[in-house]
Amino acid sequence: MQTEKYLKNYIDGNLAPATTGNYLDNINPATGKVYTHFPDSSEEDLQRAIEAAERAFPAWAALDPQKRFRIMMRIADIIEQNSDSFARAETIDTGKPLSMSHSVDIPRAHAHFRFFASSILHYGNEAFHLQNEATSYTLRQPIGVVGCISPWNLPLYQLTWKIAPALATGNCVIAKTSELSPVTAHLLSKACVEAKLPPGVLNIIYGKDQTLDLAIAKHPKIEAVSFTGDMEKGQKILQAGIKNIKKLSLQLGGKNPSIIFEDCDFDQMMINTLRSSFSNNGQHNFACSRIYIEESLYEKFKTELIKRTSFLKIGDPFSSITDLGALISEGQLKRVQSYIKLAQKEGGNLLYGGKKIDLPGELEGGFFFRPAIIEDLPLACRTNQEQIFGPIVSLTPFSSESEVVKLANGTSFGLAASVWSKDISKASRISTQLKAGVVWINGWMTQDLRAPFGGTRMSGHQKEGGLESLRFFSETKNISIKY
Question: Which domains does the chain have, with CATH numbers?
Answer without folding.
Answer: 9-252+458-482 (3.40.605.10), 256-448 (3.40.309.10)
